[in-house]
Amino acid sequence: MLVIGIAGGSGSGKTTVVQAITGHLKEKVVIIPQDAYYKDSSDLSDEEKRNQNFDHPDAIDWDLLCKQLSDLKQGKTIQQPIYSYISCSRSKNETTTVTPADVIIIEGILIFTCKKLRDQMDIKIFVDADDDDRLMRVMARDIRERGKNVEWVIERYSRTVKPMYLQFIEPSKRFADIIIPQGGHNKVGISVIVNTIEKALRESKKKDTEK
Question: Cα angle vertex 81, ends 79, 87, to 5°?
Fold first, then answer.
């Protein structure tokens, strides 16, 4: 089993990179999104929810994420939480069943800020992108998928997304084994990553056979 972490700022193209990698790999791949592990905020007022900082490490339930990743590595099935950006809450009645796989990809903006999580990763990849490109992608995504308007997106970007990127996410780039600029559009970078993963998988399987 190989655990790969893919980090980068909001709108950097992480999802595109994940899709490109999984499309090239023959092994079974499981995706663990950091976004599923936001702390439940259903008890907050509407005003408090509007002011919630989703880009701060404190917003994530790291204990649960680390525990469930550890369980997967031990061959156990997990019940991954389901989080809604619309209601800022976790579903109390539903979860997603996730079974172990040859490759586990953890994807999220803050995943390299947690040492306990980093220590469980075999390969760490940081997706880099221009600030203007990231803002455009964030704006398109939040309007299309999260029901927000342009004013809300720009205000949030200025208030939390950009400051938190500079304070937490960009500095976490130093933990990366591979930095890929231009996101999923960097075909050479994707090729290098896929080759690196396939080599690591071959070495891992060889070790298992020798045991």
Answer: 160
